Amino acid sequence: MFEAYFPVGPGLGLEENFLSLDDILMSQEKLPGRAESALPRLAFALGQGAGTGDSIPEGSKLEIPLWLAKGLHDSKRRIISVELPKIYKEAWRTVFSADANVVDLHKMGPYYYGFGSQLLNFDNPENPEIAQTILQTFISRFRRIMDSSQNAYNEDTSALVARLDELERALFQAGQKGLNDFQCWEKGQASQITASSLVQNYGKRKFTDMDG
Amino acid sequence: MEPSEAEFLAEKELVTIVPNFSLDRIHLIGGDLGPFNPGLPVEVPVWLAINLKQRQKCRLIPPEWMDVEKLEEIRDQERKEDTFTPMPSPYYMELTKLLLNYASDNIPKADEIRTLVKDTWDTRIAKLRLSADSFVRQQEAHAKLDNLTLMEINTTGTFLTQALDHMYKLRTNLQPGESAHSQDF
């Protein structure tokens, strides 16, 4: 309410949030898939061929971004079929259930939770397990995010956020903000008037420059 | 809510002062205050007390809970119990900060008091985090915490509600919902 800009959060469910920047960036992540029918002259568009006239033969492996996969996915027309990326597969799921805190979620695709929720759109027999794993991962990592965000005052937090994915980073920032506001109030700085972040970069703000 | 808003609400609490001026009873919208006679203690809201103190028109008397032994007792009890103990004032943090910043000369052992209150605060925040963690871990739907003060709720509130929001959305993924997807042509 006191912020200059209120960001729209990611949609985290089966539907993306249209206005959310996080969701837009997330849908650019690639999925492995297969072409179910021949795709004439589309090799260039899908990054596979050099010439504009090449076509993709049936059955070849592709890496397609999520927004394209969602659009082309249709159980009746069978244009492409998608597979799960490896971090949502059985092997990684057991790693997550063993100890979710050690995984570097930023490296594994910085939108683990959002992308995972979107994968549930494609009918896949493993969907309930994927949803359960994502939820359990979030719950197990919650404690560490809470502790690190509420205890690191005025320190360099880059080591702490390095292994968090984007959703967790937003949460970390919310925790930091609560802590910073409290500390700032306790020092007495809360009642000092400061320039708003929106206008600080305007060249015309210096009072002395405006004379003469 | 920001900490300064919680402080504003805290300034309505009553505290005893000893004025060095005299004034008849004043009638404010919120109620009557006074009369003020030099040397006689009178109860006023904190906002007025701080203002008079800054103009050097009064001497502040610390509230009875702002005393080293009492605070030590409170701190030890807080450390013993698993749940939150009732605090002497629902605004103990704000009052401590205000009174110790503006009237530390009227309060004996001000530094010790500051340390004791901070210790109690740290213990309570740690308990709050522990209970938030167990709440999330067991995915409960409802929790009740007694004796929390506004400032503690503010500090951890935003983080907790956002995290619970995310958890709720991830949980609704578990139910295979009616797929009201876009039309098939």
TrEMBL record, chain A:
Record keywords, A-Z: Chromosome, DNA replication, Nucleus
Localisation per UniProt entry: Chromosome; Nucleus
One annotated GO biological process: mitotic DNA replication initiation
Pfam families tied to this protein: PSF3_N, Sld5
Superkingdom per UniProt: Eukaryota
Domain called GINS subunit: residue spans: 89-185
Boundaries of every DNA replication complex GINS protein PSF3 N-terminal domain copy: 20-72
Key word Metal-binding present: no
InterPro entries the UniProt entry points to: GINS_A, GINS_bundle-like_dom_sf, GINS_Psf3, GINS_Psf3_sf, PSF3_N
Any one GO cellular component localisation term in the record: GINS complex
Complex formation: Component of the GINS complex.
Family stated for the protein in its record: Belongs to the GINS3/PSF3 family.
Physiological role: The GINS complex plays an essential role in the initiation of DNA replication.
Protein known as: DNA replication complex GINS protein PSF3
Organism: Stercorarius parasiticus
Automatic annotation (TrEMBL), chain B:
Localization per Swiss-Prot or TrEMBL: Nucleus
GO cellular component term of the entry, any: CMG complex
GO annotation, biological process: DNA replication; double-strand break repair via break-induced replication
One Pfam match: PSF2_N
Keywords: DNA replication, Nucleus
Keyword S-adenosyl-L-methionine: no
Residue ranges annotated for the GINS subunit domain, each copy included: 65-169
Keyword Nucleus in annotation: yes
Residue ranges of domain DNA replication complex GINS protein PSF2 N-terminal in the record: 3-61
Annotated InterPro entries: GINS_A (IPR021151), GINS_bundle-like_dom_sf (IPR036224), GINS_Psf2 (IPR007257), PSF2_N (IPR056784)
CDD domains recorded: GINS_A_psf2 (cd11712), GINS_B_Psf2 (cd21694)
Chief site of localization: nucleus
Job of this protein: Required for correct functioning of the GINS complex, a complex that plays an essential role in the initiation of DNA replication, and progression of DNA replication forks. GINS complex is a core component of CDC45-MCM-GINS (CMG) helicase, the molecular machine that unwinds template DNA during replication, and around which the replisome is built.
Similarity-based family: Belongs to the GINS2/PSF2 family.
Protein name as it appears in the record: GINS complex subunit 2
UniProt organism field: Stercorarius parasiticus (Parasitic jaeger)
Gene name of the encoded protein: Gins2
